[in-house]
Design a protein that fits this description.
This protein is an alpha/beta fold. The relative contact order is 0.15. Helix content is 38%, strand content 13%. The protein has one domain: TIM Barrel (Alpha-Beta Barrel). It contains 14 helices and 14 strands. The chain starts with 13 loop residues before the first strand and ends in an 8-residue tail after the last helix. Pfam families: Glyco_hydro_1. Keywords: Glycosidase, Hydrolase.
Length: 475
């Protein structure tokens, strides 16, 4: 890193951080909350399930944001956050998911969160469903494999828009909606493991979520045309491992698996290449005329995305697969990796932003990006514990420089919320030791710890980045 970056970020750029209810709130059985799929998955997205919540599930307490939200939001304000992305736990509002009336105690909790954000002038960005399907819907209906979930989700979305619509301008429908084929239980509440789920059931569940997303967009705009509703895509560019045209085609096909979700959200219809995929797998989706109309007439206002890594694709069989990469792929020999095997590729973020902008022409919002790492708490200059996380600063700086380049390319980027702005329970592994935050939370993988909060070195770094609207970044 050398020179300071010329000011590339637009005025009003939304700087902030991102979290998910199941990874920060805790209080899994407080305030009338029902169980979610997260409460029976103590080892992360691909881990085994339990019949009931077990003591080894760190998410049951998480970092106790439910009771400490005021303290945490004050720290976000100290960093200068313009926006805070959080999710609402569906089972806190509708404990089973299929009730007719919402749980007032759950609604009141998020009123209190919004009160704190308003006190500091922090814009809320709310995700309706962030891997938090009510467990009852998973067990009774097989999750999103059932069309009935569309109606339950519509009722939930309407309750939120009516309650918070005058306080929340920006909404996301489903977190990383394209993850459903890979993690059907966490992403869709579907009981069958991914390797046992039929193509028919996988794509039908995907269709149900897409229709529900479009329907939620319709409801939001009916309640207030000024509300902005976005989709959320797990973004990971695929590169051909070699110049072999077959590798180039393999990479294109792999990327299309992700593009399909955004194509439907942004264009209101299934693309031809995806329809071919369905035909070749013998899938006949149950699509009603009403489905087609709601998809066509209710495209999203913006596209949000998570970005952590890029992937390679090849037709060659005897190559090493990428450890930790959630969407598969093979190792890129030109890249380094994190401690969890996620390959680090800042330029890939610029590539994704340009590709998405060129493809859909919708404003883009980076709502997840960050480095999971083992942090060591050490005494700071004044004796207060801190973390000397220069590795995190370097990672975030390099990615934000590429965001600036994309803005200079002409891409409309609304904002950036760093993932896990405060340490939280990892989604992929359900560990505390895989830390992302600017704020250290004293909790360990064995559940011990005081839950005290400490500012890391990156805390002050990010505060400076926000204060200067990116001018302090080093290219």
């Amino acid at each position: 890193m050398t020179d300071n970056l010329a000011q590339p970020f637009p005025e009003g750029f939304l700087w902030g951080g991102a979290t998910a209810a199941n990874q920060i709130e805790g209080a899994h059985d407080v305030g009338g909350k029902g169980l979610s799929v997260q409460d029976v998955t103590p080892k992360g997205v691909a881990g085994p399930r339990t019949e009931v919540p077990t003591a080894d599930n760190l998410k049951l307490e998480a970092i106790d944001f439910y009771h400490r939200y005021a303290e945490d939001i004050a720290l976000f304000a100290e960093m200068g956050f313009k926006v805070f992305r959080f999710s609402i736990a569906w089972s806190r509002i509708f404990p089973n998911g299929d009730e007719t009336e919402p749980n007032e105690e759950g609604l009141a909790f998020y009123d209190r969160v919004l009160d704190e954000l308003e006190k500091y002038g922090i814009e809320p960005l709310v995700t309706l469903s962030h891997y938090e399907t009510p467990l009852h819907l998973a067990r009774e209906y097989n999750g999103w494999a059932s069309r009935k979930l569309i109606g339950f989700y519509e009722r939930y979305a309407r309750a939120l828009f009516e309650r918070y619509g005058k306080r929340v301008r920006y909404w996301l429908t489903f977190n990383e909606i394209n993850s459903l084929p890979h993690f059907p239980f966490i992403s869709g509440g579907i009981g069958a493991p991914a390797e046992e789920l039929s193509a028919q059931d996988r794509y039908q569940a995907m269709h149900h979520e897409l229709v529900a997303s479009a329907s939620a967009t319709r409801i939001a705009h009916e309640i207030d045309p000024g509300l902005k509703v976005g989709c959320m895509i797990l973004a990971a560019p695929f590169y051909p491992l070699t110049p072999d045209p077959r590798d180039v085609w393999a990479a294109k096909q792999a990327e299309r698996e992700n593009y399909a979700f955004g194509d439907v959200h942004c264009r209101g219809r299934y693309p031809g290449y995806f329809l071919r995929t369905l035909r070749e797998q013998g899938v006949e989706l149950e699509i009603t005329d009403e489905d087609r109309q709601v998809l066509r007439d209710n495209t999203v206002d913006f596209v949000s995305l998570s970005y952590y890594m890029s992937l390679c694709a090849t037709v060659t069989q005897d190559v090493e697969t990428s450890v930790g990469n959630l969407l598969g792929g093979v190792n890129n020999p030109t890249l380094q990796a994190s401690e969890w095997g996620w390959q680090i590729d800042p330029l890939g973020l610029r590539i994704v932003l340009n590709d998405f902008w060129d493809r859909w022409g919708k404003p883009l919002f980076i709502v997840e990006n960050g480095l999971g790492a083992v942090d060591e708490l050490v005494p700071g200059p004044d004796g207060t514990p801190t973390v000397e996380d220069d590795y995190r600063i370097a990672y975030l700086n390099d990615h934000l420089v590429q965001v600036a380049e994309a803005v200079s390319d002409g891409v409309d980027v609304m904002g950036y919320t760093s993932w896990g702005c405060i340490d939280l329970v990892s989604a992929s592994t359900a560990q505390m030791s895989k830390r992302y935050g600017f704020i250290y939370v004293d909790r360990n993988d064995d559940g011990t710890g005081t839950l005290e909060r400490y500012r890391k070195k990156s805390f002050d770094w990010y505060r400076e980045v926000i204060a200067g609207n990116g001018a302090s970044l080093r290219s």
